[in-house]
């Protein structure tokens, strides 16, 4: 009896393994090796973002409506998306609506909280939090940015997941600023 059951096991294992290899592949997300403002806008709007394309001096960015992303007592915060390395140009060359860009950056600004202490507030954020880099801009506002590189290929799902991560980071930033 033992011999029979052992001889059936390899046959069953082979049949099972063959079934796994012949199963249809799961639907894969499209791989992007560059991204345009138009494509990113469509992907983010599918995630619920309310964006407007803005072109100034030939450079296209995306601007969000202010988002209530933290507790209701935390002020809504808007963000902007900047595009870099577009159409084979340099890092800072302007992006058109249909440009093929190798990277983009989410950026949000908060008004000065405590004049003279903004740099310290940004430094503390950078020390504590992994995602999103904070800094003080030339107008005295505290900025939060998160860069995304598409060059080399990323999936559309990765772009959507990165946006969800940006929203989580932005909510943490809004709460952090509210505590300062």
From TrEMBL:
It comes from the Bacteria. InterPro entries: Put_sensory_transdc_reg_YbjN (IPR019660). Keywords: Signal. Residues 1-28 form the signal peptide. This is YbjN domain-containing protein. The lineage of its organism: Bacteria, Pseudomonadati, Pseudomonadota, Alphaproteobacteria, Rhodobacterales.
